Amino acid sequence: MIAYLEGKLVEKTPTELVLDVGGIGYHLQIPLSTYERLGKNGSRIKILTYQYVREDAFKLFGFVTLEEKNLFELLLSVSGIGPKIALGILSCISVDDFNRFITLEDLDSLTGISGIGKKTAKRLIVELKDKIDQDFKIEKGTIFKDKVKLDLAGQAINALISLGFTKYQAKEAVKSAIERAQKKLGLEELIKQSLKFSK
After folding, report:
1. 174: Cα separation from own chain's centroid
2. Across the chain, where does the E strand assignment appear?
3. Cβ neighbours of residue 44 closer than 8 Å, sequence gap 6 or more
């Protein structure tokens, strides 16, 4: 079992990368969240890996963080969820947001993920709720528990993306702004505060 690979990033796209490790080129499929955090081609990186082995397939998947890899493995344990859907989930939302949606049984947000219908969303909740609570120790009193705040955060994130930020940068900036706010922020003020925390 390959736990991780460290080497030179040869090329990357939003869905895959090629890593040169000692003269051997490894092809890995990745979620968008990992792509957004990779360095430039030619840079040296370390990436966590998951080997997917079936009779008709042998694939390597790569992740920048352990949280992404753990969630990917957890998603594969759900009946009807394969690598393609699991990568799609990780590409659409952050690990924290997914965990909150499962913990709060938020069907609307889950079905808002591309490729996830109502039946699949219900199955995710049923099969992962206890595991999410145990493995990730979600604090149910988080800033996103309030549905209005979640919607407001989503609007602010979209606004930052339209200004040229990556999805990851936008989410981190909005999260920082909400956590540090001394009072409830309106959309315009949330966007302004988020810009202060953008990187």
Report:
1. 15
2. 4-12, 16-21, 24-29, 44-54, 57-63
3. 6, 7, 8, 9
Q: What is the CATH number of the domain that holds 123?
A: 1.10.150.20
Residues in the chain: 199
Is residue 88, in this structure, part of any structural domain at all?
Answer: yes
Domain ranges, residue 151: 147-197
How far is CA 25 from each of CA 64, 77, 177, rounded to the nearest angstrom?
Answer: 18, 29, 41
**Burial of 121 by CB count in 10 Å (0-12 exposed, 13-18 middle, 19+ buried)?**
buried
**Number of domains the chain is built from:** 3
Give pTM, 2 decimals: 0.67
8 Å CB contact between 59 and 52: yes
Residue 142 forms part of a structural domain: no
Q: What is the pLDDT of residues 55-110, one digit of tens each?
A: 777 899 999 999 999 999 999 999 999 999 999 899 888 888 898 899 888 898 89
The C-alpha atoms of residue 27 and residue 79 are separated, in whole angstroms, by 27
